[in-house]
Every structure is written in C-alpha cells, then in structure tokens.
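Hi all, a correction to my earlier message: I attached the wrong file for Phage protein. Here's the right sequence:
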Amino acid sequence: MNAKTKFHVSVMDARLKKMREERDSFEKQRNELLNDMKETKFKAELFDELLNSFSDNLLIYGALAKSLVDRYEINKDLESEE
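and the right structure:
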C-alpha cells in the first residue's frame, strides 16, 4: 500500500468515524424524543381522566346545588306566605 492509498484510507476512516458519531447522536435524540412523546401521551391521558372525573363530579354537585337552592327558595316562599 503506497502513501497515497494510506492517506485515502485514513481520510475514509475519519469520515466513517464522524458518520458513526452523527448516527449515534441522532439515535440518542430519537430515543429522547420517543420518551418525551410517551411521557406527553401519558400526561394527556391522565389529564383527560382528571377532566372527565371533574366534569362528572361537577354534574353531580351541580344537580345537588340546584336542588338545595330550589329547596331554599321553596322554604323562603313558604315563610313569606305565613
């Protein structure tokens, strides 16, 4: 192997090393992005459950509050008639 060939081989090795480093960097970024996406999906599902639970409870407590207000108004009307 002559000097020119050795030089070309060393240049190709350097390029290959750089490409492998870039590949590893991209793979790491991809894995981090996938983990972030999983975490975001998990948090979105928890938020949806919380929101549904809150809205269900709001309907229940809203109906209870309305019935209490109605009872109060009926009692108030009865007291004013006496």
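Sorry for the mix-up. The longest helix spans residues 3-81.
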